[in-house]
Amino acid sequence: MTSLASTLSVKEADSLNISAADQLAQRCAQHMYEDDTASQALGIKLIQVNCGGAIAVMNVKDSMLNGHKTCHGGLIFSLADSAFAFACNSQNQAAVALSCTIDFIHPAFKDDILTATAEALHQGGRSGVYQVKITNQNQQLIAIFKGNSARIKRSVLPEESALPKEK
Questions:
Q1: How many whole angstroms from its chain centre is CA 85?
Q2: Contact at 8 Å (CB) between 107 and 128?
Q3: d(Cα 37, Cα 150) in Å, to the nearest integer?
Q4: C-alpha dihedral (59, 61, 64, 68), degrees to nearest 10
Q5: Is the pTM of this model over 0.85?
Q6: What are the strands, taking DSSP E only, across 2-112?
Q7: Distances in Å between the alpha carbon of 12 and those of 6, 8, 15, 26?
Q8: For the domain bounded by 4-151, which CATH number is listed?
Q9: Mind listing the pLDDT tens digit for each residue in 69-128?
Q10: What does DSSP assign to residue 110?
Q11: Which residues contact 93 (CB under 8 A, 6 or more apart)?
Q12: Domain boundaries, the chain
């Protein structure tokens, strides 16, 4: 993961006024990214993560083009889905996609640098609603993704329980 805060010590993070919730989000994202071979294989890099949000980037390569010489919609969806995953798992409560939709606005082309910016619109106890905007290097809107998440009653980080202790 390429995030400045993920490499900071707790003392350094405190001096930069990074909240405990954002520090937890960064630890969750780093843990998930290490095992996310799909995102890694697509060259998706996690740039920033905070509580309820994430920013990921992907460079469009030749192998990502469809028959129209534009980026395959499934790969744009994959970028958005990855950003969504990091955002909805940022509170150390494991979540999976319940449903997702995407609206393609403009095509992406070879050598475009796509940025997916995910944010929580709502996060309840069990379900959440997230929006991901995908833009290119010129800030042109490429797509809008909406994802609904469902928490699955376990924590993201193995050493920290997300669930209250039973008495």
A1: 5
A2: no
A3: 22
A4: 110
A5: yes
A6: 45-50, 53-59, 95-104
A7: 11, 6, 5, 14
A8: 3.10.129.10
A9: 999 999 999 999 999 999 999 999 999 999 999 999 999 999 999 999 999 999 999 999
A10: T
A11: 151, 155, 156, 162, 163
A12: 4-151
In tens, the pLDDT along 5-28 reads 444 445 555 556 789 999 999 999
Pick the closest to residue 77 from 29, 146, 149 (CA basis).
146
CA distances 35 to 14, 82, 151, 157, 164, Å, are 28, 12, 19, 12, 26
Phi, psi at residue 70, to the nearest 5°?
-120, 165
Taking the C-alpha atoms of residue 76 and residue 99, their distance in angstroms, rounded to an integer, is 16
Can you name the residues that pair with 57 across neighbouring β-strands? 45, 115
CB atoms within 10 A of CB 158: 8
Query: What percent of the chain has pLDDT above 70?
Result: 86
CA-nearest of 47, 18, 51 to 33 is 47
